[in-house]
Amino acid sequence: MFGRINKMVYHITIPNALRIVSLAAFGFLVYTGLQAHSTDGALLKELRNTNLGNLFVWSFWWPLIVIVAIFIGRVWCFVCPVELITSLAAKMGLKRKRPQWILSGWAITIFYAIILFMGIQVLKIHRDPTMMAIYLLSIAGVSVVTGLIFEKNTFCRYVCPVGFLLGLYARIAPIGYRVKDADICKSCKDKSCIRKDYTYNLSAKSCGVDIYPAKIEDNTYCILCMGCRKTCGRFNPGNITGRPNPGFTWTGFAKGLYEHRPVTNAEAFFLLIVSGFVISEILSEWNASNDVLTFIPGTMKSILGVTGPFAAGMVDSAVLFIAIPAMVWGIPYFAGLLGGSRISIIEYLRNFGVAFIPLMAAAHLCKSVLKISSRIPYLPLSFRDTAGMEAAKSIVAGTTFVAPLPGWTELLVTLLLTLIMAGGIIIAVRTIQAVTTSLQTGWKGRIYQLIPALYGGIFIVTIALWRYVAR
Ligand code: SF4
Ligand code: SF4
User: Fold this and answer.
1) Nearest atom, ligand 2, residue 213 CA
2) Whose CA is nearest to atom 7 of ligand 1?
3) How far apart, in whole angstroms, are the C-alpha atoms of residue 301 and residue 75?
4) Are residues 281 and 328 in the same domain?
5) Contact present, 225 and 205 (Cβ < 8 Å)
6) Minimal CA–CA distance to 216: which of 73, 106, 88?
C-alpha cells in the first residue's frame, strides 16, 4: 500500500498542486465570510451555521483535520496553502537567522494564547463569519511576514499552533514518515535532504523545518512537504540504490507516546493551555456542565465588576485556559510529592505532559464527532446561499426550520463518545507506564495515574451524566 502512495507523492507537482487548490478554497471561504457581516446577536447565532465559510472552517475543516491527525498523521500540513505562501515569501525574503526565542518554541505557545484569549474569547472568531475571515487572513499575513524576514520555513515549524497541535496528536497515528534504511543515510555523502543549495527550491527541496530525515522519531515536527524524498531521489549523485530513502510507512499505534520522549518547556505550557481549551469545548456542549464551567469566571467577573467584552474575555480566558488546567495538572503533581516522589515541577510538566496528549486528543475527537453530526443538516442551506444571510434571516423569522439528523444517530454518537474517551484513557494509562519506567520512579509512579483518572474523568463523567443520565 505504501509503495503506491510513496510513488504518487514523489511526483514533481505533489503536494504543490493540491496546495494551489486549497489556496483557492481558502480564498473562497474568506470571501464568503466577509460577505456575512452583522452585529445583530440573534442573526449571528444562525449565521455561524448558514455561512458556508464559517460552517466549513469550524464544523468540518477543523474537526476533520483533528480526526485525520490522530489516525493518519499530520496530513493537513501536506495540503496546507500556508506552507506554499510562507515558502514563496522566504524564497524572496531577507533569510535572517532565527533568534533563540523563536527556536525555543515559545512563539507557538504565545501565538496560540493570543488566538484563544483575543480571537476566541473577545472577537469570537468561531461565531462570527467576518471575524473568521479576518482570522484566516491574519494567519496568512503572519506567515508571509515570518517568511519575508526569516530563513527556511520558520512559520510552519516555530509559529503555527495548528500544525503543532496536529503534530502532537499525530504521535498516536500508526503511520509515519521515516527513512526505510538508516544505513543508507549513514553512508550518504551528499546529504541532499538537508543541503543548503536546495532549501528554497519549490518542490525537490531540502528540509525547511530543521529535520534530518534519518533522525525522525515521531510525527510531531515533519510537515510532510515531501521535499526531502525528492531531493534524496533526484539529486542522488551516484545512483545509490534504495534512494529515495524517506517515505510513508507503518510505525505502530501510539508509538510516539509509548517510546517516551519529553516535551520542551514551551511545549508543556502549550499542552497545558490546550488542555483547558478542550475542557471548555466539551463542557460547553451541555447546559448543565456549561453552568458549572462558567460559574468561577462568572463569579470573578461580578466580584471584579468586569463588564466590557475585552476585560470579560481576559477573565474568562485566564480561568478557563490557565487556572482550571493548572489545577488539573497540579493535583497529580502534589499527590506525587505527598507520596514521596522527588520529581521537580518542570520535570513533571515535560515528562507527564505527554500523558495528557491522548486524553486531549480523545476529547477533541469527541468534540469533532459532536460538531460534524450536529452541523450536517446545515450543509444544503449553506451551499444554496454561500453568504448565508437570507437563510439566517429566515431561521430567525421562523420561516425555515433545520431538521436534525434522525434519532438513531444520537445513540450512535453517544456510543462513539464513550468508546473514544475510554480509548484515550487506556492510551494515557499506558503512556504513564512508559514514562514511569523510563524515569525509574518505582511504585510511586503509579500516583501519576491520577492524570487519566482526573482529566479523563472530567470528560467521562460529563458524557455519562449528559448522554446517559439526563436523557
Ligand atoms: S535521506 Fe537521502 S539524502 Fe538524506 S541522508 Fe538519507 S540518503 Fe542521504
Ligand atoms: S523531513 Fe522531509 S517531508 Fe518532513 S518536513 Fe522535512 S523535508 Fe519535508
Assistant:
1) 1
2) 185
3) 41
4) yes
5) yes
6) 73
Q: Which residue lies with its CA nearest to atom 6 of ligand 2?
A: 207
- Whether 213 and 352 share a structural domain: no
Give CA–CA dist 95/92, Å, rounded.
Answer: 8
**Which residue among 196, 220, 251 closes a domain?**
251
Over 90: is that where the pLDDT of 464 sits?
A: yes
**Model pLDDT for residues 277-309, shown as the tens digit of each residue:** 999 999 999 999 999 999 999 999 999 999 899
Q: Residue 298 sits in which domain range?
A: 265-469
- Position 15 in a domain: no
Question: Ligand 2 mean position to 60 CA, how many Å?
Answer: 27
Going by C-alpha positions, the residue among 154, 2, 163, 179 that lies closest to residue 69 is 163
The minimum-distance atom of ligand 2 relative to the CA of 156 is 5
Ligand 2 lining (C-beta closer than 6 Å): 177, 207, 209, 211, 213, 222-228, 246
Q: Does 353 share its domain with 207?
A: no
Q: Which residues pair with 59 in a beta bridge?
A: none
pLDDT, residue 450, reads: 98
Question: Do residues 218 and 323 both lie within one domain?
Answer: no
Can you tell me the distance from the alpha carbon of 52 to that of 32, in angstroms, rounded to the nearest whole number? Answer: 7
Alpha-carbon gap, residue 413 to 401, rounded angstroms:
22
Q: pTM (2 decimals)? A: 0.96
Candidates 184, 199, 205, 225: which one to mutate for ligand 1, based on the most atoms within 8 Å of Cβ? Answer: 184
Ligand 2 centroid distance, CA of 246 (Å): 9
Q: Is the model's pLDDT at 239 over the cut of 80?
A: no
Question: Can you give the pLDDT at residue 35?
Answer: 96
Domains in the chain: how many in total? 2
Ligand 1 atom showing the smallest separation from residue 228 Cα? 1
Contact 395, 344 (CB under 8 A): no
Examine residue 242 and state whether it is found in any structural domain, yes or no.
Answer: yes
